[in-house]
Design a protein that fits this description.
The structure holds two protein chains of two kinds. Chain A is α+β, with helices and mostly antiparallel strands. Chain A has 24 helices and 19 strands. In chain A, 40% of the residues lie in helices and 14% in strands. The longest helix of chain A is centred in the last third of the chain and has 21 residues. Chain B is mainly β. Chain B has a domain of 41 residues. Chain B contains one helix and five strands; from the N terminus they run E-E-H-E-E-E. In chain B, a hairpin with a 2-residue loop joins strand 3 and strand 4. The longest helix of chain B is centred in the middle third of the chain and has 7 residues. Classes of the chains: A alpha+beta, B mainly beta.
Chain lengths: 597, 73
């Protein structure tokens, strides 16, 4: 039977140099789809939950989604699944660009990397041939340069790589692909660095993927493309302004964390908005594989034309550091990509360091000439580079993330993180539902595991009152489960502004031969969310890890449109566990049996 | 005065911020009409940071923020 799966996985052991071809377990593929879901199940079954994340016992799974490479819109995504050195729990970071599609076209559903190479290496995939090659000459190289160099060696390849930050085992290190796309979160780049693996190149002769029912897939794809084009967000707002368009709306609701979440309204936010970015720096849109949206920004920065910032770094380097210098933010974001750093956690750690400095906990002499003052535009650029280099003592500490930094200075409560991963750009005091997502995200502080901003702020699929708690637990569960499905299919989450579970079920069924209803597909998403939680339980997660920083529950927003609000997580979290069928943060036996786990 | 903030494509050919005499406008819809913005193009209407219907009343010192469909993540 032809399906969108290749049915083939490569297992590459960097300690021994052995490369084995394995069959994809189709029963597991049907139960966990692919990408995030299947990758997590595979990692769990291989017993990785208890290993040291930066030891050679950890494994890296680069896995495509069930629909990656197909003709469905936004089908270019892949997922990196591993045990996170930042959180000590599950990491699944996904990225767009074209690398994921190239890997799939080359004939592979996934690559599992084990062990540790004695010297720096890279993996070269050309269709069904895989080889491990020396990478000494690429050590220390930035993302853009290594991409260009490897493309000269392997014509028409797509490059996935780590930058210097990953080599130096920064817990904020990202895995980059196609120069400026990032599997950014949870320190996956450090795991790659710990294995002495600098890059993976993918080249494919093919440029298409089979499907179970090509006619049905063509029909559903046509309908989805139309819906995406006609939707005001995916057909209008995102193509015109990128994700940066959120700066003004989030700020105007008083939910824009400012100066490390001490405030939540930034007077100068408009200087750093999507509108300003478009007027002053935008060159053109950029598109990932088979994307009809094109939210990516190509801008003028550092005398070049390069990838521009998303909403998250515009906020994190901007209001969260008290910075309204858009050129400085663009530049700092550029160096994040070049060094291979998470463009959320890196600026959030700088913001935490600024609060430590302003409170007198970090001393002037530790700053080596670049004070970590609120509003110091030079600081966001210079400290990003310093974190990428990990040379001077304070930068080395900051490269381990805000939690470890603040703990070192005796004030872990200043770290605005969940499970030691920095929270993104929406204040959970002002928006009650997103707080549940943050607290219960299996990979730590994160917005894209259940984007409640959609109903609570954007009014999609319907407008909810952001200040209310009632019903938010169930909304969170549904969003988390649907997101797990989209992430496992290898599609972009932004399609969900225009599409719903019935459309995803139709695409998956036509591609792989399943016959899921929308409800059944959401249950698959629920299974994925629960297997992640089982991984975390095995990794040593405790119920108290599902918590928000005290600042969000104890310090009301001091000013702006959401003045006086705090997170009501103590009300919503028990409701959430109830709708999940969990007790004390973990699934009950009954829930596991229902989900076939 | 009512402070009106326009965003994204609503800024094309219009000021980012306009101050209007409060007495001339009873509802958000009337303010939107003043700018000749079709009601169906307004995806988000905030009055003092709170999501509001277009028939919501406006008064002196209110801040009205208007957005076409926008999103991200």
């Amino acid at each position: 039977m032809q399906t969108a799966y290749n049915g083939k996985i490569a297992r590459i052991n960097l300690s021994t140099g052995e490369i084995r071809v394995e069959e994809l377990n189709m029963d597991l593929a049907r139960k966990f789809i692919g990408g995030r879901g299947l990758g997590t199940k595979m990692l769990y079954d291989e017993g990785i939950a208890t290993v040291d994340p930066l030891s050679e016992d950890n494994k890296l799974i680069y896995i495509t989604g069930a629909m990656t490479g197909t003709k469905t819109p936004t089908s270019g995504r892949y997922m990196v699944v591993t045990k996170s050195p930042l959180t000590g729990m599950i990491a699944s970071s996904n990225s767009g660009g074209v690398w994921g599609a190239k890997l799939k076209y080359a004939g592979w559903d996934a690559i599992i990397v084990e062990g540790k190479a004695k010297t720096p290496v890279y993996i070269n995939v050309v269709d069904d041939k895989i080889e491990i090659l020396p990478a000494d000459e690429y050590v220390g190289m930035m993302s853009e340069e290594i991409d260009e160099k490897l493309k000269k060696v392997h014509e028409k390849c797509s490059v996935l790589n780590i930058g210097p930050a990953g080599e130096k085992l920064s817990l904020l290190a990202a895995i980059m692909n196609d120069k400026d796309r990032a599997a950014g979160r949870s320190g996956v780049g450090a795991v790659m660095g710990s294995k002495n693996l600098k890059a993976i190149t993918a080249t494919a002769t093919k440029s298409s993927i089979e499907s179970y029912d090509p006619e049905a897939l063509q029909e559903v794809t046509k309908g989805c493309l139309k819906a995406i084009k006609e939707n005001g967000v995916t057909g209008g707002g995102l193509p015109t302004y990128g994700t940066a368009v959120l700066v003004n709306i989030i700020n105007n609701t008083g939910a824009f964390p400012t100066r490390n979440w001490q405030e939540s309204y930034y007077e100068e936010a408009d200087d750093t908005s999507g509108e300003s970015l478009k007027d002053q720096y935008l060159v053109k849109q950029s598109f990932c594989h088979r994307c009809p949206i094109g939210c990516g920004r190509v801008i003028n920065v550092e005398g070049k034309v390069a990838g521009g910032p998303e909403y998250e770094p515009l906020w994190a380097y901007g209001g969260n550091c008290g910075i309204n210098d858009l050129n400085a933010i663009n530049t700092a974001n550029y160096w994040c990509n070049e060094y291979g750093l998470d463009a959320i956690s890196t600026p959030c750690t700088i913001a935490a360091a600024m609060e430590l400095y302003e409170k007198g906990l970090i001393k002037e002499e530790e700053c080596e000439g670049v004070p970590l003052k609120w509003g110091n535009a030079e600081a966001i650029i210079e400290w990003t580079k310093r974190m990428g280099e990990s040379e001077i003592p304070l930068a080395r500490l900051m490269a381990q993330g805000s939690y470890r930094l603040c703990e070192y200075y005796g004030h872990p409560e200043i770290s605005m993180s969940v499970k030691k991963q920095e929270m993104p750009a929406y204040d959970a005091r002002a928006i009650q539902g997103i707080g549940i997502t943050y607290a219960t995200s299996n990979r730590g502080g994160c917005h894209v595991r259940g984007y409640l901003i959609s109903p609570e702020i954007l009014g999609l699929p319907q407008q909810l009152d952001r200040t209310e708690t009632e019903g938010k637990a169930l909304w969170t569960k549904i969003f988390q489960d649907l997101t797990a499905v989209i992430d496992s299919m290898g599609l972009c989450l932004f399609t969900s502004f225009a599409l719903g579970a019935p459309e995803y079920a139709a695409m998956l069924n036509a591609g792989t031969g399943t016959s899921y209803t929308a409800e059944e597909l959401l249950e698959v998403g629920e299974r994925i969310y629960n297997i992640e939680r089982l991984f975390n339980k095995a990794a040593g997660m405790k119920p108290e890890d599902d918590r928000l920083p005290k600042r969000l529950t104890e310090q009301p927003i001091p000013d702006g449109p959401s003045k006086g609000q705090v997170s009501q997580i103590s009300i919503t979290l028990p409701e959430y566990y109830k709708v999940r069928g969990w007790e004390n943060a973990f699934p009950t036996e009954e829930t596991l049996a229902r989900l076939g786990l | 005065m009512i402070e009106v903030r326009l965003f994204a494509t609503f800024r094309e050919g219009r000021q980012k911020i306009t101050f209007l005499e409060a007495g001339q406008f009873q509802t958000a819809a009337q303010v939107i009409d003043y700018f000749h913005i079709p009601h169906e193009e307004v995806a988000i209407c905030l009055i003092n940071g709170r999501h509001s219907r277009l028939d919501a009343s406006v008064k002196d010192e209110d801040v009205l923020a208007l957005f076409p469909p926008v999103g991200g993540g």
